[in-house]
Amino acid sequence: MVEASGMMYTNTNTTLIPAFNPTVQRNHLRLCQLPLSRRHHVQFSLSATASQASTFMETIPWGCENDSLENSSSLQKWLSESGLPSQKMAIDKVDVGERGLVALKNIRKGEKLLFVPPSLVITPDSEWSCPEAGEVLKKNSVPDWPLLATYLISEASIMESSKWFSYISALPRQPYSLLYWSQTELDRYLEASQIRERAIERTNNVVGTYNDMRLRIFSKYPDFFPEEVFNIESFKWSFGILFSRMVRLPSMDGKVALVPWADMLNHNCEVETFLDYDRSSKGIVFTTDRPYLPGEQVFISYGNKSNGELLLSYGFVPKEGTNPSDSVELPFSLKKSDESYEEKLELLRKYGLSGSQCFPLRVTGWPLELMAYAYLAVSPSSMRGKFEEMAAIASNKTTSNKNLRYPEIEEQALQFILDSCESSISKYNKFLQASGSLDLDVTSPKQLNRRLFLKQLAVDLCTSERRILFRAQYILRRRLRDMRTGELKALTIFNGFRKFFK
């Protein structure tokens, strides 16, 4: 469930594949030299849509149904036979993550582990079992992400004929990341959380990327990309693997890669160590930031991600209060009744924002951009000269006046934030209060187990996000109370002086 490497892909709000033009003519290529039985034996249903994501994974014939140690042991054996050096860790069943890497010997703090050679790493430059298919994608300048997604499907579909068969057999067939939740499940379980919108956007991006690939390449080269293999079901599976396991290696100029064995490492919010390429040992390594005793699980960090982001990509939620990077997305909107609404909206759009915007709220506070947006939302038309400054700072596209403050409207701005905060809290309360009475299909035990599990993930996420909102609510109420108390005291003193002089 939480097996993944430190994925450094952060730009999840952009299209996954830019427009590109095919330049290769089909008659310039030879038919892929693989037996027909290997190329066309996988059967899929093409009727699945984004709303059926919870069921289409059952049609994927590769990967493992459960995180079995048997598949993991086969992977470990294959890696050793393929050149993986002797390790101080082994795959085993663990409490956190179902399976992970545990120490076989004493491991010191600052010790380098793994040493996975480049020959056992999947990158955009990896050799294809069907080289003609790889040539088509590269000559059409397909970006790394969709190229690797297609590569995974191509290698998985030929089963034992692929060099990566043991690795792919150990990959999950049905992960729990939000990419695999149906629209109904997202609406039911994550109605209160803004991560729902991120999940929908990600799914739409993947579907859009697949449609683009199908139109521009797959349909033009059906011998290399048969529709019964390269379809939306398999594309979602491959992208789900990339989202949860891909790493970006700084020492290799930011090259993206899948690192077998390393992606068995689970995440710990307190760990601050990442994968990278080590030029001296010529392998993928990580440096421990703490010692481990034999039998202890060894962890890395997947990055400074919120609980919602961890659920989005990896399908798990840390225990409440254990993630120092946790945050909640707080939604804001300009009031259409504002006489300066159109002017403010135009300025926000100028800086890449909109009239409805989300900002991260953390346990430690909120960013300056959020405060600038609040100032803009409540500012009267008499402050028109400051509108653009507020919009620019809200977008983080300016380096000037970072000490933004407007005392004359600070109380209104804080109240604006508090109103949004309390509105969100009411949604979380409503979900958590009703979470015990959701309609579960007891006629399907397998589906029931899945829904109960998703429901528990949603409850854990909403509980952690509501906790941050409660803290922000407390701070905002106290600041507003202090401001109003100070104003009342000043008014009392002023009235006392006025009576005295009368």
Report on the biggest sheet. 3 strands, antiparallel
Could you state the order of secondary-structure elements as H and E?
A: HHHEEEHHHHHHEEEEEEHEHEHHHH
Overall pLDDT, averaged? 83
Q: How are strands sequenced across the largest beta sheet?
A: 3-8-7
Give a description of the structure.
With 502 residues, the chain is mainly α. The protein has helices at residues 36-39, 53-56, 69-81, 131-139, 144-157, 165-169, 183-189, 195-216, 232-245, 307-314, 341-350, 368-378, 387-394, 410-434, 445-501, and strands spanning 89-93, 99-103, 112-116, 247-249, 255-257, 266-267, 276-278, 283-287, 299-300, 327-333, 356-362. The strands form five sheets. A three-stranded antiparallel β-sheet has the order 3-8-7, with no helix packed on it. A two-stranded antiparallel ribbon has the order 1-2. A two-stranded antiparallel ribbon has the order 4-5. Strand 1 and strand 2 (99-103) form a beta hairpin. The longest helix is centred in the C-terminal third of the chain and has 57 residues, at 445-501. The termini are far apart.
Structure summarized in a few sentences:
This protein has 502 residues and is mainly alpha-helical. It has helices at 36-39, 53-56, 69-81, 131-139, 144-157, 165-169, 183-189, 195-216, 232-245, 307-314, 341-350, 368-378, 387-394, 410-434, 445-501, and strands at residues 89-93, 99-103, 112-116, 247-249, 255-257, 266-267, 276-278, 283-287, 299-300, 327-333, 356-362.
